[in-house]
Amino acid sequence: MTAGTLNLTLHVWRQPNSATAGRMERYEARNVSTDMSFLEMLDVVNEQLIAEGKQPIAFEHDCREGICGSCGFMINGVAHGPQRGTTVCQLHMRHFKDGEELYLEPWRATAFPVLKDLVVDRGALDRIVAAGGYVSVRTGSAPDGNAIPVPKEEADQAMDAAACIGCGACVAACPNAAAALFTGAKISHLGHLPQGQAERDRRALRMVRQLRLEEFGSCTNIGECEAACPKTIPMEVIARMNRDHLRASLETRGERKAAGGE
Ligand code: SF4
Ligand code: FES
């Protein structure tokens, strides 16, 4: 080992496809620069595997800047690894010790079937957003910044919720594999803004309905999601989702009653 480098032992989940059983395989990563990101370290391991005529380790990535939400897997049982508020693409090797053994596994949740190695299918999150996580009115071209005044506190909370990148770490960290933090963030983001009010009730009803149709568990307020979230989305968004959903459900029932229904 030279200065600023590490030798690591990796135990990586290898699974060719969702229909075939997977297993852990051991790899030695030698002379890893402490300046590398975790994904750059895997790139080097993969180059070596390719040179040996072996299959490279499949993992997802795109921006490598912590903004797209593509990357993510478990490192020693922790979603996105040991550094709080950090995606695995932004995690640097200087946070690890020489000689460490690292266990890399895909997100474990029934709703996220493994596609290959560390890559899972997160289509369930897309379907929740497609159910109502948008504003459908015509908004025209971008208005002047101050044309629609938004109170500072509301704008801050909307921005905090909008930071969700849809990575799925909250689901992977939750013992129930619940997607309440993700769905709460998407509902809160638009629910805090004037442009999101017209469809606020419908959005909460549709997104929560889709959340329940997918194979996620129920939220029991454990809080692992907040601890694992690389964007440190607070659990308040779950309370807000529940409030919006309850209010919308009661209003819908009230309207049904007034119209002569049960
Ligand atoms: S709430 Fe956080 S952990 Fe969950 S998908 Fe969004 S960014 Fe990822
Ligand atoms: S690759 Fe885009 S957030 Fe990690």
Task: Provide structural commentary.
The chain has 262 residues and is α+β, with helices and mostly antiparallel strands. Helices cover 35% and strands 13% of the residues. It has helices spanning 38-51, 123-130, 152-162, 169-173, 180-191, 200-213, 224-228, 236-258, and strands at residues 5-14, 23-33, 74-75, 78-79, 101-105, 114-116, 119-120. α5 (180-191) packs across α8. The mean pLDDT is 95. The structure holds iron/sulfur cluster (SF4) and FE2/S2 (inorganic) cluster. FE2/S2 (inorganic) cluster (FES) binds at residues 61-64, 66-71, 87, 89, 165.
- Estimated share of beta-strand residues: 5-15%
Largest sheet: 5 strands, mixed
Cα Rg? 21 Å
Q: What order do the helices and strands follow?
A: EEHEEEEEHHHHHHH
Which ranges are low-confidence, i.e. pLDDT below 50, for 5 or more consecutive residues?
none
Tell me, what's the shape? elongated
- Widest β-sheet, arrangement of strands: 2-1-5-3-4
Distance between the termini: 74 Å
**DSSP E strands, number:** 7
Number of helices: 8
Structural class: alpha+beta
Could you report the average pLDDT, rounded to the nearest whole number?
95
Helical percentage: 25-40%
Element layout with pairings:
Blueprint: E1 5-14, E2 23-33, H1 38-51, E3 74-75, E4 78-79, E5 101-105, E6 114-116, E7 119-120, H2 123-130, H3 152-162, H4 169-173, H5 180-191, H6 200-213, H7 224-228, H8 236-258
Parallel strand pairs: 1-5
Antiparallel strand pairs: 1-2, 3-4, 3-5, 6-7
Helix pairs in contact: 2-6, 3-5, 5-6, 5-8, 6-8
The protein binds iron/sulfur cluster and FE2/S2 (inorganic) cluster.
